[in-house]
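Quick log. Single chain, no ligands specified.
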Amino acid sequence: MALLAEQKELKKKIYQALRDKALKPDDDFYVDVYNLPDCPDPIEKLREHIELTGIETIQFFSGFRGSGKTTELLRLKQDLEESGYFVVYADALRYINPADEIDITDLLIVLAGAFSDAIEENANVKNKLQHESYWTRIYNYLKNTDLELTEITPKAGVGKTGVASAEMALKVALQTTPSFRRKIQEHLKNRIGALKEEVDLFFEDGVKAIKSALSDETQIVFIFDSLEQIRGSLFNDKAVIESVERVFSQHYKMLKMPYIHVIYTVPPWLKFVMKSPQTRMEVLPCVKHWEKGKARKSHNAGKNKFREIIVKRFGEDGFNTFFGADWNSPNRTQADKLIDLCGGHFRDLLSLLREAVLDTNNFPISDIEIEQAISAVRSTFLPISKEDALLLSEIERTHSSALTSDNTGRLAQLLDTHLVLYFKNGEEWYDIHPLIRQEVNKLVKQIEAEKAKPDSAKTK
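-> predicted structure:
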């Protein structure tokens, strides 16, 4: 039976409401999912550390894809601003290539450049700056160290060789030209201390401008977001991991900025390779929908948060029409089935819901259409290799990360693609995504059966 015109309009409205994007805390769709009794709010811990420490801190923050990391950082930004802090927010992807290795030299340059861009967007602060932008300063600094800047030329589309054009070209080249970054790294490897001094001087000038525009008591927070998306590829993931570990462990002190609270979003796998007591790192866990243990006892507090997410996106009337049940009643089988299979990830819940809306040809949605949606999303997790199946089975059995010195890169990818789930309630524990449990168990049984065969009967 075809949908009526008003039903088609409702379907369109719901589908558009299921777009996956970062939300501000005052957005109608926002749900504070980390306000749970047995899961300390990571954002509250970041904020409290800033408030209790003083005028200068450094913290690491992370979350897996689809965990709502940027949404939660925007909540932190709003909370801090309401408390009188001046918050500078910058997106690292405007300045770096997440598929390449990173070095302390180019990271220091882009940190100061991103801070410069952000504070210049505030007219009151910009008017108080006593010097030119950082991009102009670093361009002149590099020229004064006799570095050949041949990549920044009119031929490359920069225009006439004015400083404004050159500084823009420098910014672009740092992001898009690996050979140029390597040239800078090589040229500055014996001048890192001098570069850090230049960076600190600029940050100090920025702090003075902000305080002059606002008040001497104003404290400043710099959030450098999206740095966690440095992940490399199948061909260079080990080298990228090593470069990130090197920057954040060997050069930790250089990442501190004078008179500023700095929050870096870092890859979540950094917690596996960096064991330093000086490092504060908060990782957004999956929202717990079941308890640790073989029985996986249901955790209703987490599920209720995700029910609230669905109702806000669908609207109460839309929810009742689409699922054929009042959202306050226990008869929410279809909606709860999707919640149970999302693994505590927002993005996976939204994917399941979007597929369900696409597959619906009549209201309320049928069992067959729900299963079609689940099958479509499950297919995006497959196929699973036998090697991964064994690792996933071990994680499921032990609820540990099963980390070894040889599998850091692979474990990082399994977490990043949601095949492995990270939870925290007093202690850290791990599980595998509910959409793949059956496939993993099937593969492990096949492997065990193959091993049990006589050598002469084994397949190649």
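DSSP finds 19 helices and seven strands in the chain.
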